[in-house]
Amino acid sequence: MLHYAQEQLQGDYYTRAFQAGAQEDTLILNMGPQHPSTHGVLRIILELHGEYILRAEPVLGYVHRMQEKMGEVKTYPQYLPNMGRVDYLHALAWNWAYVLAVEELLQLEVPERAEYIRVITCELNRITSHLLWWGAYLLDLGAFTPIMYGFADRERAMDLLQIITGSRLTYCYYSFGGVTADLTPQFIDGTKEFCKYLRTRLPMYKDLVTDNMILRHRVDDIGIIPVDMARRYGVTGPNLRGSGVEHDLRRNTPYSIYDRFDFEIPAYEECDALARYLVRMDEMEESLSIIEQAIDSLPEGPVTPPKMPKVIKPPKGEAYGAVEGARGVIGIHVISDGTATPYRIKLRSPSFSNLSLFAEVSEGILLADAVSILGSLDLVIPEIDR
Amino acid sequence: MNIAPELIHIAVALAAIAAFIGLNGLVLVWLERKVAGHIQRRPGPYEVGPWGLLQPVADAVKLVGKQLVRPKVADPWLYWSAPLLSFTPVFLLFLTIPFGPRLIGMEFNLGLLLILAFSGLNVLALCLAGWSSANKYSLLGAARAVAQSIAYEIPLLLAVLAIAFQFGTLNLSTIVHHQGPMPWQWNVMTQPLAFIIYFICAVAETNRAPFDLPEAESELTAGFHTEYSGMAFGLFFLAEYAYIIVISCVATVLFLGGWHGPGAPGFWWFLLKVYALIMVIIWLRWTYPRVRFDQLLNINWKWLLPLALVNLLLTLIFVKM
Amino acid sequence: MIKKTPKQSTLQGIKSLFVGLRVTGHNFVMPQITTHYPRQEVDNLVTYRGHIELVPKEDDPMTSKCILCGQCAKACPSNCIELVIRKEEVEPPPAAEAQPDADKEEAPPKPAPKKKVKRILEAFILDYNLCSLCGQCVQTCPVDSLEFSTNSYLAGFTREEFVFELLERMRKKYKASSSG
Q1: What's this model's pTM, rounded to 2 decimal places?
Q2: Which of A152, B223, B273, C13 lies at a 20 to 30 A Cα distance from A57?
Q3: Does ipTM come in above 0.90?
Q4: Distance from C-alpha of A212 to C-alpha of C16, rounded to nearest angstrom
């Protein structure tokens, strides 16, 4: 027989703090850290009245791995593989944000071809991220089949990325001043084929899911995030564009060579889950068009800078690298004190901001809608906790 | 010894039904997974036996072998009686269904009423399971199950009643006899609306996707059977499939001409129709997302119930004319 | 471009339900796309980057290209590389010493010949338990003496099985290829 102290039976600190504010005749439900729809170890404490949510409080930190502290004890290149682990779905964007910051510190010029390769691979990675979100979101809404179709297509993109990066998920492909491996003809042909193939699959997705009446009723007018609320919480990425703000770092502060491509920033003004859903579906098409343009105008040349310092010791200073990830603005602030290890690294993860508004947006909604909203925010839990 | 021949007949029928449920349960589990696999472009079970045919047997053995766990605070009597209560009425449901011209457990004038009455017991089982588990997810699942089942029972009854009015009987054999062998002689032609209403309600009654709210995985983890393990869960599982077979059988009897069919009538036509319906139900599950709870009730009270009433009224006018 | 989400009428909605059934029905009759693993294998294993292996010299397959600089061990973020180096004192070859001296007229008094220390790679230990497959070691290697293996079906029961001695592996591999 197990014996618990009275205090333990009442739950941990978060539960007790949450319970203190409970009203009469309500149910405190602990959703997570192990729950099918939190996709990882996110925990949400809910106060329910029937099936209506009165209060919600996300509890974080179950996969906190001290990514920022790790940056302070490793050298600059040694910290590179960490980036793929922060957000395993759009690893290359995190790679990019970090090398962008360090390149600014080092005043490194990135060769033209390497920039193109970065754009191609990052957009390909964005597509894989959105495909997984699409499948997982539909799984949250109770449809089992879409995730299998999404994964089938995602596998193809991951096969392509494996050709040049050698891994399938936690990429560590960009290096300071370039990329670690050049594109192969196999990759280029495969990517061209993949773009054509995915364009034939997207209408099928629309038929099966986007136009489906039941899905429409599950996401239409659910989880409205007005623009001012989005701004208050620092929401970025597709979630902000779903609230009718055309904000995209690729367009607003074009890093790398994004100003050379012709693409649209999809945004919808409804602020609901459907708008966020459609933004991501449109974004996949835009990413395909960027990839095609980049492959068509891919220049020849080296993929690493001609002169690389042997030991990377940036001069004293600070740099901020920000890129548009699949979930929003990924920002990395690196402070150098002139040694081979960074003095401080700050990771700004978009999912953290996106999750923060959940407590406010979920007041007074149904439990089923909370799942729908949580899915529409496209959270990656390791990115929240870092 | 002087045992009435009816009693022997019923005893034999019950034994046959037990075999029928067991066999069909296994086949359905296999079929469901196989269809799901092929819809998702994967093979489904294929390791155990030819085409994975023995997979459900292996699963059943696993379920029987697992430990039965009861939460410490759960009410033991209610907790253990719920799966039994869910499963045992299933035997009675098959008793009055005419599988073939002579293949029937018990000729009973109120056969339809018997099926409807005993299928209602399932709700009680789900309610007890959810209540006695002392789990919040189970409780929410049970509340959903009760609200859903009670709501959908009404249009289902009204749709069935239209057929009963049309022929003036609740005897299932008589209803089958009134239909002919050809598809245009079946009741689905004269009562298409009743068939659609019955089918939607039946899917909702059996808690199948897209109406699988009591066990909505992404919201309530597993709903009312969250705490059940081993064969206790297995009984719920088997009962769910048995109810799918029952509603398909009733739909076949009432709307699709029962064992009638072009060429030689017989139980093969009956089984064919039943399995066609089951395939459609499986197909639905692997295609649609889940509806939300208030939407589910809205569909019922705002659409199905008025439509069923109108249908019943039209049937009455038609019958009286 | 800020768009409006397209609205759907009830009739379109009901039609969409049948369209959805058509899509899944179509996929039902399409061939499978999965790889049945134990009987089949995926075809892209050549591009997989597994743990590292030492590259042998072209002329001598029993010794590696490694020059024992230790850059890889330093670059590794998780300290999973360990070089075991044996130091051997080697007498300088006298013939090489004598030749240049002969040309000079006034040879200074010979200093005692410095004993050269030759460093020999005894073992190259990779603790694959800690490796995160980042590839920093391969990138930093100045003589390309490290390469990725394509061993993606690696499995074992204990931690110790994943501590590899790469030099031994390299030699074994050569022996297996030359004998087989």
Answers
A1: 0.86
A2: B223
A3: no
A4: 5
